[in-house]
Amino acid sequence: MFFPYKDDNPRILVPVVNNGIIALNIFVYLYQIILTSSGGDADVRFIYMFGLVPAQFHIISLFTSMFLHGGLAHILGNMWFLWIFGDNIESALGHFRYAVFYILCGLAAGLAQVIINTDSLIPMVGASGAIAGVLGAYLMRYPHAQVHVFVFIFFFFTTIKVPAIIVLGIWFLLQLTNGLGTLSLDSAGGVAWFAHIGGFIAGVGFNYIFQHIKIKEY
User: Fold this and answer.
1) pLDDT tens, 16-25?
2) Which residue in 47, 95, 153, 163 has its CB near the most CB atoms, within 10 A?
3) What is the set of domains in the chain, with CATH numbers?
């Protein structure tokens, strides 16, 4: 098991959009905590109202679902990955294009999961799909950037530095393997693997497109 904790890829721009996305996700999660602590089922109704339920698909929930999270570990993991890799993609694309890129990847990720689990009544929440798009773009742009990772093997623990192509390549293969493993199941609750897969592929594709779109930012 491994977990990245920083990279050696210097940023060029101050990642105001990336930081803003992180702040927005944290703000929404704090609101979810308030709903949970208030008692009743307000938190559940909030998730069903703004989460993405494939069998009750709505275009607005496709957008809002990427700012909700299912628990503390969920949001911490997502925001940590976005903090490590998002700043460099914002530096590469510019502020405006990065915001558009992030949203497009999140929408593509949600659609991918809906296509796979069309009849599911389980709400899908999380920024994972959009962040997977960031990872896809990072892999394409900085495959040899050095990433520092924690490595856990039973009771053995260490830190190593490896190229991004290995870290993100293994990450994608894990998503793909787990996702394909759910295809034969009647219910695919838990992790929305195909949102991760779809978001990653979208990130690779949109990165290629955005490399050929030049917009001056002031």
Assistant:
1) 999 999 999 9
2) 47
3) 14-142+193-210 (1.20.1540.10)
